[in-house]
Amino acid sequence: MTVRAVEQQTALGSRRTHRRASRFRGASINLLYLPALVLFAVFTVYPLISGVALSFTDWDGYSPQRAWVAAENYVRLLTDDTFRSVLGNTFIYGIGSTAIQQVIGLGLALALDRRLRGRNVARAIIYLPVLVSPIVMGTFYYLLFQYDNGALNDLVVALGGQRQAWLSTAAGGITTIVLVNSVQFVGTSMIIYLAGLQAIAPEYTEAAMLDGANAWQRFWSVTLPLLQPAFATSVILNLIGGLKLFDVIQVLTGGGPGTSTSSVSTLIGTTYFANQAAGYSAAMGVALFAIIAVLTVIANAALNRRRLEQQ
């Protein structure tokens, strides 16, 4: 065997060893995310499939017996006045909270993006409610808005006014729930917009200033278009959170009076446990999942198209 042949054989052996090592590293990396896939399958995929299967039955949630009823539960949804009314409330919670959170969150981000003394403390205080359980926040606001012994009504009476039923009417309850949910999670929008503002290169603003643009023109023509990715992220997250709102409603109004302040999420609980109609409540859950998925896709596509048009 010549020297050249020996070198070629050695090189070939080295390449084979390198390929085997690459395959081993790839297999090792795949094993690292296997636990996450297992958890996702057990706690997300399996419940989703079980819920869809349950929605085609008449199960009452307790009996070992259940019968296949095909699409009967979904047909019932289309003719259920209570479900349509509650679905309207759900859209109000989702869209209303999202709109308020974008306006206040962006305003706070713009204010706290400047070099101000104590801005880090202010950011922490504004974001702190996000870390608190909605049950705790709802209880706090219930003590504030309740008719008897409520702090807000005590203040109104002290100023010479009459007590108000903030939570006992449909309009008052829905408005209060939207405001409470917006205040609690406005910190999320603020953080997202702060990250977006700090990612904008100062050269863009400096160039606009050299062109003679005033503060409003710089915000409208430079800052706002460059915040489109942050805007899309904040809108999608807040919209999903608002559409599946549950905890705050349960604590503040319990969905009442009647079902006038219920969301689809609270109605699902009532239908399952109080009405013992697990199959029908599962159909509501599947419908809510589909609505949130469709709205998220539409909103994401619209925001991405707007961002591409501005580039």
UniProtKB/TrEMBL annotation:
<dbReference type="Pfam" id="PF00528">
    <property type="entry name" value="BPD_transp_1"/>
</dbReference>
<keyword id="KW-0812">Transmembrane</keyword>
<dbReference type="InterPro" id="IPR000515">
    <property type="entry name" value="MetI-like"/>
</dbReference>
<feature type="transmembrane region" description="Helical">
    <location>
        <begin position="280"/>
        <end position="303"/>
    </location>
</feature>
<feature type="transmembrane region" description="Helical">
    <location>
        <begin position="124"/>
        <end position="145"/>
    </location>
</feature>
<keyword id="KW-0472">Membrane</keyword>
<comment type="similarity">
    <text>Belongs to the binding-protein-dependent transport system permease family.</text>
</comment>
<keyword id="KW-1003">Cell membrane</keyword>
<feature type="transmembrane region" description="Helical">
    <location>
        <begin position="29"/>
        <end position="49"/>
    </location>
</feature>
<dbReference type="GO" id="GO:0055085">
    <property type="term" value="P:transmembrane transport"/>
</dbReference>
<keyword id="KW-1133">Transmembrane helix</keyword>
<dbReference type="InterPro" id="IPR051393">
    <property type="entry name" value="ABC_transporter_permease"/>
</dbReference>
<feature type="transmembrane region" description="Helical">
    <location>
        <begin position="219"/>
        <end position="240"/>
    </location>
</feature>
<protein>
    <submittedName>
        <fullName>Raffinose/stachyose/melibiose transport system permease protein</fullName>
    </submittedName>
</protein>
<feature type="transmembrane region" description="Helical">
    <location>
        <begin position="91"/>
        <end position="112"/>
    </location>
</feature>
<dbReference type="InterPro" id="IPR035906">
    <property type="entry name" value="MetI-like_sf"/>
</dbReference>
<dbReference type="GO" id="GO:0005886">
    <property type="term" value="C:plasma membrane"/>
</dbReference>
<keyword id="KW-0813">Transport</keyword>
<feature type="domain" description="ABC transmembrane type-1">
    <location>
        <begin position="87"/>
        <end position="299"/>
    </location>
</feature>
<feature type="transmembrane region" description="Helical">
    <location>
        <begin position="165"/>
        <end position="195"/>
    </location>
</feature>
